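Intended use. Records like the one below are meant for learning the mapping from a protein sequence to its folded structure. Do not use them to infer anything beyond what is encoded.
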Amino acid sequence: MDARRSTIVGKDALSVLEGVDEIYVAKGKSVMHVNLKAEQPDKKRLLALLLGPTGNLRAPTLRKGRTLIVGFDEETYQKLLR
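Structure written out for the chain above:
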């Protein structure tokens, strides 16, 4: 999907979590790992991780199997996309 043509806004961003077991979120120089099975965060926390300041799904967002990667961190990409 091309995010420039089809944006995912607000609560609709939660739909990208369907079938996802874990999320890696890169913000600045830090990367946060959330195990959705073990932690079961509430919707407010999930939206804070997924949405950027404009209220749209943060870019880049990439799904590999049951893992979702939000934001860009080269080290995380190398580790997870082998």
